[in-house]
Design a protein that fits this description.
With 370 residues, this protein is α/β, with parallel strands linked by helices. The protein contains 15 helices and 13 strands. Helices cover 41% and strands 18% of the residues.
Length: 370
């Protein structure tokens, strides 16, 4: 009889079927650790998903999920999350916390279960909080952990300086499940070149930076087109900006689309644009899973220097890092990629395969055993 592996409790602030980078990471981590023999149980927040859909989703997984449904009465959600966490913490060997609210639970876990091995996964925006109280709570929480995993070197820069040297620290990049992308039907998007950004249309994602650069890009590439895929949070403001710059005819907003359509569009682009901002309220891109998704299709990426995207791109190999607010730099990056497209494309595909979760999970196993 095979020996049962360690019990892992993974607590995440988001999880599929809801979308989001933290949820994507948590799901693949749970799935990959299960394949490595760990017995994984998940506690995850969920918003506006029917019971039947949750049951169907959970039936397909190799791990158990305890859903915390976010409700209008926020305190009820918090109490439910705390109760379930303390209930299950006593029955597990190691606890992984991912996302701001999950990190805060470490305070209670350490108090009620002082001997537990606690592992934090930090993505980015939870570290550069501008409000004093949440920042202090996060710092206090991180001191309760035995190990901290940052998803990029950029993210690791924002760990509190007051952390004990006894806390073991790791940088483990985000990964992708390469099998998911192999069956995609690719259809070339309009535009020469066809540029694309995938993600909620927000200040952080930096779609406005691309629009601001379009007049310069179109002077050299008059047939270029910019495709914007994602929840249209600030779409109206960006449409107004595009009209002011007289480039609105070269920009198309698709809104949120299903996963199949998203991947079809991504694979049909020439260059992915990730000109993300580190916003005034401390929000920033921790790594950029979408970079690797584009890379799998051989699509190079132009990304921001001032974010975790700097870890997701091998500069001048799989894409190019730029100042996201410098149109001249962006144009030079487009020129370089288009003039050496095969080189960038082949490197991008190889880079994506290196980041398959089959490889990334090995780094997590090392961290968990440390």
């Amino acid at each position: 009889m095979a020996e049962l592996g360690p019990k892992i409790l993974l607590i995440s602030s988001e999880f599929p079927p809801n979308v989001g980078g933290i949820g994507n990471h948590a799901y693949n981590l749970a799935k990959s650790l299960s394949k490595e023999g760990y017995r994984v149980t998940v506690i995850a927040d969920i918003i506006d998903v029917a019971e039947t859909e949750l049951a169907a989703f959970e039936a397909l997984q190799s791990f158990r999920i305890n859903w915390i449904k976010r409700k209008g009465f926020v305190l009820q959600t918090y109490l439910q999350r705390i109760f379930k966490t303390l209930q299950l913490s006593d029955k597990t060997d190691q606890i992984i916390c991912s996302g701001k609210f999950s990190l805060w639970l470490a305070i209670l876990i350490r108090f009620f279960h002082p001997g537990k091995d606690l592992v934090a996964v930090v993505h980015g925006s939870e570290l550069d909080l501008k409000s004093s109280l949440p920042k202090k709570v996060t710092s206090f929480s991180l001191k309760r952990f035995n190990k901290i995993v940052s998803v990029s070197n950029y993210t690791a820069r924002f760990l509190p300086a007051t952390l004990s040297a006894r806390i073991k620290r790791f940088v483990i990049h985000n990964g992708i499940n390469c099998e998911e992308f192999e069956a995609t039907t690719s259809v070339k998007l309009p535009g020469e070149p066809a540029l694309i950004t995938v993600g909620s249309v927000t200040e952080r994602k930096g779609q406005e930076n691309v629009i601001n650069a379009l007049p310069v890009l179109l002077a050299t590439y008059p047939n270029a087109a910019y495709h914007v895929v994602g929840k249209p949070v600030i779409k109206a403001a960006l449409e107004k900006r595009a009209k002011q710059l007289q480039v609105n005819s070269r920009v198309r907003f698709y809104g949120a689309v299903d996963r199949k359509e998203l991947l079809e569009k991504l694979s049909g682009a020439d260059i992915k644009m990730m000109l993300s901002n580190h916003t005034a309220d401390g929000d920033f891109e921790g790594f950029g899973i979408a970079v690797l998704e584009a890379n799998f299709y051989g699509v190079p990426v132009i990304g921001s220097k001032n974010s975790g995207i700097a870890d997701a791109i091998e500069d001048n190999e799989t894409g190019i890092l730029v100042n996201p607010q410098n149109p001249a730099e962006i144009l030079n990056a487009v020129n370089s990629i288009l003039n050496n497209y095969s080189y960038f494309s082949l490197n991008a595909k190889a880079w994506a395969i290196q980041h398959d979760w089959k490889n990334i999970v090995k780094e997590y196993v090392v961290a968990l055993k440390a």
